[in-house]
Design a protein that fits this description.
- By secondary structure, this protein is mostly helical.
- The chain is built from six helices and no strands.
- Helix 4 runs antiparallel to helix 5.
- The longest helix is centred in the middle third of the chain and has 26 residues.
- The radius of gyration is 19 Å and the shape is globular.
- The N terminus is likely disordered.
């Protein structure tokens, strides 16, 4: 690892970063190259449209309506979405090593339909 990637916290922090680089090489490769703007905006558009009117947005609306501090609600919701997205992105990198993307898409679609059916029948 280059000398410019040291984090505050000493040698133990540097070791954790090096382990992260080894565990997620495809994820970290993006930090050394230019951003793929087309992929960035297509991902943004896809998720923006998918999230409109979903239960997360409704929860934020309700929380914000009953709060005197909407900025705090925004920051909390943004942090939660960023964290969930980070976990999903990292998990996708690990799962992609063992499962084909086509099978992963089919499995995700099946789980999505199952969740919809369970929600429809008030089972969850």
């Amino acid at each position: 690892m280059s000398g410019g990637r040291h984090l505050p916290g000493g040698k133990n922090e540097v070791m954790r970063v090096e382990q992260f680089y080894r565990l997620f090489p495809e994820w970290m490769k993006g930090f050394d190259t230019m951003i793929d703007w087309k992929l960035l905006w297509s991902t943004f558009a896809l998720l923006f449209v998918a999230e409109l009117g979903d239960k997360t947005q409704l929860a934020v609306i309700c929380t914000s309506a009953s709060s005197a501090c909407p900025r705090t609600v925004f920051l909390g919701a943004a942090l939660a979405l960023i964290t969930a997205t980070l976990i999903g992105t990292l998990a996708g990198q690990v799962v992609a090593r063992f499962v084909s993307p086509a099978l992963l898409r089919r499995g995700a679609a099946g789980l999505f339909v199952l969740m919809g059916v369970l929600l429809f029948f008030d089972k969850i």
